[in-house]
TrEMBL record:
In the N-terminal section; belongs to the phytochrome family. This is Circadian input-output histidine kinase CikA. The keyword Membrane applies. The lineage of its organism: Bacteria, Bacillati, Bacillota, Clostridia, Lachnospirales. Residues 712-833 form the Response regulatory domain. Its EC number is 2.7.13.3. It comes from Enterocloster asparagiformis.
């Protein structure tokens, strides 16, 4: 029995030893396999994360360069559509202000700078043939060049019409900073490489480019085999995607590479030290080895140690998973792309970025739990169908247009599909980006291009018509001048020619004023004044002007006024322009013997601003319905053989409508061919708070050789012809005139004169050395006894409302527009000199 017990004990000991030994060996083998598996999983997972980060940075940098190309091409299109250099300069300055691009320069085919510095240091280093590549493709980007500060910059070239090229540049540092200066929590850095591994943009962290021109020399110098380096260079040149390990500074470094901006054949290469990649795995591995040693050494605690090892490994794995999830979370919070990672077994998402709720309106939990709400069925079904489609063999991109019920809006989604292996498991990455704004911007740009083309076509037609209309009175001026020269002995004939020249000149002036008014309106610089006036007097003046015109054509003119408040506030010049335009058109387009009527009604009063309705009606030729659609449009003229003999700019009604709109009113039209037209204007005009001063009645002016007798004027005018005209007109009526060629000379002449020597100063505005505004201000403050009292009259071609206000602000007493109306000048001078006396 004892022997049997001993035998049984030996058997148990042997069995226990075998079990313990087998357990130790099994634990040892399991530990080794676990270490290998952990190392593999940590490396492959982290490498994949770095590759995804590299891919994301590559796409971001490609998008930046594509956006830069798109913006420069769009700018080039705008520059090609701009006729004036000043407008082009405004576009270029605004573009440079709104973008990180600098050094905008336009060079013609001869190398002359049309805009920007002609001898810019950067432009001297343009590669040979770069301009030809720009002209061939319309756009080109260079490898980095060195600017005058020794910084590296990428040069862009965009072709313009007329063999011109628009150059611009950005610093290479901004390309690195745009997609992040560091990688993998600050452990890594990135290169941008060109063909054959040439270092295009070095990392901000290590400026190797000071020593090495290409990555191959760097790697070979670091004792890597030339065969592996050449294989790496070939992979870069082929545009491949992948990762490889090299030695640098005695440490293994992981290189992940992705193509970036394929037009240049560039590659984005991310470098991270392997010890940084595997440091978490190394901790797990060391723990596993320690636990395996404990299991082998302490057989009694093998199972307990095994359990402890299992739970320790699991805890470490959870920490590693949490670490990876933190990386995914950080990426999710800082990008507008939703990432889905699907597995091949169930085609269900393993992971969804948390930003899906913000971007798609569907929380990540709904995707992970495969929940689908009925109200989201259309959008979710479409998105789910895309996720369930068979995976492509290689990465691809597609765009989807759909309506998102959760966000209540249309969406354009750009979906990048990229299958990959995570360890031995097949996965597929779906990167879903909302590109709705980008798509809408493209549509807006396309629509703007169409509108611009239509506007250019309309302007071309307008200028073609204007060429005829302006040459007609010009022909009258030139022709009548020629006839007058040949008829110097025939005073009546010369007088007739001069009258016709005067008529043609005034007609030409009207055409020019219309074009200038339209220019002011289109540039948004139209200014209105608000001054007291009497509406009754304004209407009486209109009737006095129009009645002779109607009587000459045998037409009946009727004025009907039903207004309670006559003392109002407004811009009388522009009101006169509105009514005169409508009434003149009615007279022009009404046949002889027809009828023209003007009706003024006060409709209602809201606060201190009554509403007035003014109607201009006639029984003339009328306007067709299709013509009524464009009659208020600038640069559009009605095509009608019945009005071809009637000259004009075609801008009158466009100007009229814009003036009415600026005053807060509206204009409507009722018309039919052969039945006449009726234009109705509704305006709110504020009443005056006090009594309107009674304006003196202007006496009829008859000028003779004594009108300016005893008066001496100081004339500041830089144009010799204008000087001669003013001197001749004034001296013909008894005045003495002293002339100066600029504002400074006029200032010196006035300050040196005795008190009472000059009776008035006639001041041009645009002059060399010192302009008229500055001269007037200095005269008013010079300390001369007459400095504050002498009349200063602006005589200028600057005729807009803001020009009149500028003259007043400079201290001038009145404003006379060129061409000079001598009667008006006499009235102004008499009024101001009488007041000064």
């Amino acid at each position: 029995m004892k022997q049997a017990n001993q035998k049984r004990h030996r058997y148990r000991n042997t069995a226990l030893f075998v079990v313990i030994a087998a357990s130790c060996i099994g634990a040892f083998l399991i530990g080794i396999e676990a270490i290998r598996s952990i190392r593999s999983n940590v490396r492959s997972t982290t490498v994949q994360v770095i590759r995804e980060i590299t891919n994301s940075k590559s796409q971001m940098l490609t998008a930046i360069l594509n956006d830069t190309e798109r913006d420069l091409r769009s700018l080039a299109a705008s520059l090609d559509a701009t006729m004036e250099l000043s407008s082009a300069a405004v576009l270029l300055e605004r573009f440079e202000k709104d973008h990180t691009i600098s050094g905008l320069t336009i060079i013609d085919h001869g190398g002359k700078a049309l805009y920007g510095p002609e001898n810019a240091y950067l432009l001297k280093g343009i590669p040979e043939g770069f301009a030809a590549e720009v002209e061939a493709d319309g756009f080109q980007m260079s490898d980095p060049l060195i600017d005058e500060n020794g910084d590296r910059r990428v040069l862009f070239g965009t072709a313009l019409a007329g063999d011109r090229i628009l150059y611009a540049s950005i610093p290479t540092d901004s390309m690195q900073k745009a997609c992040g200066e560091t990688t993998y929590l600050g452990e890594g850095y990135s290169y941008i490489l060109g063909k054959d591994g040439k270092i295009v943009v070095p990392p901000l962290r290590y400026n190797y480019e000071q020593v090495y021109e290409d990555i191959g020399n760097l790697l070979i110098y670091a004792d890597n085999s030339s065969e592996r380096v050449q294989a790496f260079i070939r992979a870069l040149n082929s545009g491949a995607t992948g990762s490889v390990v090299f030695q640098i500074d005695g440490q293994e470094q992981l290189f992940c590479f992705e193509p970036v901006y394929e037009k240049r054949g560039w590659q984005l290469v991310t470098v991270v030290a392997l010890n940084a990649v595997e440091k978490d795995g190394a901790q797990i591995i060391s723990t596993a080895v320690a636990m395996a040693t404990v299991i082998i050494g302490v057989v009694v605690t093998a199972l307990a140690a095994g359990s402890f090892l299992y739970w320790s490994m699991r805890r470490k794995q959870q920490e590693n998973d949490r670490f990876l999830l933190d990386i995914y979370q950080a990426i999710s919070e800082n990008t507008d792309t939703v990432i889905f990672i699907l597995n091949a077994r169930s085609a269900a998402p393993d992971y969804v970025f948390e930003n899906s709720g913000r971007i798609l309106g569907i929380p990540a939990e709904e995707f992970l739990k495969q929940e689908q709400q009925e109200q989201d069925s259309a959008f979710r079904s479409k998105l789910q169908a895309i996720l369930e489609e068979p995976w492509p063999s290689e990465g691809c991109t597609r765009e989807v247009h759909t309506y998102n019920e959760r966000l209540h809006r249309d969406m354009w989604l750009k979906i990048l599909i990229c299958p990959f292996l995570l360890g031995d498991e097949k996965k597929c990455l779906y990167a879903v980006t909302d590109v709705t704004q980008e798509h809408n911007d493209r549509e807006k740009i396309a629509a703007a291009v169409v509108v611009a083309e239509q506007a250019n076509a309309a302007k071309s037609n307008f200028f073609s018509s204007m060429s005829h209309d302006m040459r007609t009175p010009m022909n009258g001026i030139v022709g009548m001048t020629t006839i007058a020269k040949r008829s110097l002995g025939d005073q009546d004939r010369v007088l007739d020619c001069l009258n016709k020249i005067d008529f043609s000149s005034r007609h030409l002036l009207g055409l020019i004023n219309d074009v200038l008014d339209m220019s002011k309106i289109e540039s948004g610089k139209l200014a209105l004044v608000c001054e007291p006036f009497d509406l009754g007097e304004l209407l009486l003046g209109l009737e006095a002007i129009l009645r002779p015109q109607c009587e000459s054509k045998g037409q009946t003119l009727t004025f009907t006024v039903n207004i309670r408040h006559l003392r109002l506030m407004g811009d009388t010049l522009r009101l006169n322009q509105i009514f005169m335009n409508l009434l003149s058109n009615a007279v022009k387009f009404t046949q002889e013997g027809g009828a023209v009527s003007f009706t003024a009604q006060e409709l209602e009063q809201r606060g201190n601003s009554p509403t007035f309705r003014f109607t201009v009606a006639d029984n003339g030729i009328g306007i067709a319905q299709e013509a009524q659609q464009i009659i208020f449009t600038p640069f559009e003229r009605v095509s009608n053989t019945a009005v071809h003999q009637i000259e004009g700019t075609g801008l009158g009604l466009a100007i009229t409508k814009n003036l009415i709109t600026a005053m807060g009113g509206q204009i409507t039209l009722k018309s039919a061919p052969g039945q006449g037209s009726a234009f109705t204007v509704d305006l709110d005009l504020p009443m005056q708070e006090g009594e309107l001063p009674v304006a003196p009645v202007a006496e009829a002016v008859t000028l003779d050789e004594t009108s300016f007798a005893g008066r001496r004027f100081l004339l500041a005018e830089d144009n010799a012809i204008n000087q001669e005209i003013a001197v001749e007109l004034l001296t013909a009526y008894g005045a003495k005139v002293e002339t100066r060629n600029d504002g400074k000379q006029a200032l010196l002449a006035f300050t040196a004169s005795a008190e009472g020597y000059y009776d008035a100063v006639l001041m041009d505005i645009q002059m060399p050395v010192m302009n008229g505004y500055e001269a007037a201000r200095r005269i008013r403050t010079c300390g001369h006894p007459q400095a504050q009292s002498i009349p200063i009259i602006a005589m200028t071609a600057n005729v807009f409302t803001e020009d009149v206000l500028a003259a007043r602000n400079a201290g001038m007493d009145a404003h006379i527009a060129k061409p000079i109306d001598l009667t008006k000048l006499y009235q102004v001078l008499k009024e101001k000199m009488d007041a000064a006396d």
